[in-house]
Design brief:
mainly alpha; 3 strands
Amino acid sequence: MTDEEQLIFANQEKAAIFTHDTDFLRIAARWTDERKTHNGLIYCHLTAYGIGDCIRKLRILATVLNSEDMKNHIEFL
């Protein structure tokens, strides 16, 4: 499945995507230019945090942002 297909699938499932893949950032920017919507991206640089830190940050994020907040939003951890 390509990155774009994953983003399409996430939209169908009404889910945001958590990733360290910068390709998703480019796709989201292109979608914005094309007036397409997505349910959000949560981006973490591969070497910025360990998996435990990422999970802790995701848990916090889940308590402060809802699905409407994430619509067409990119959250950088």
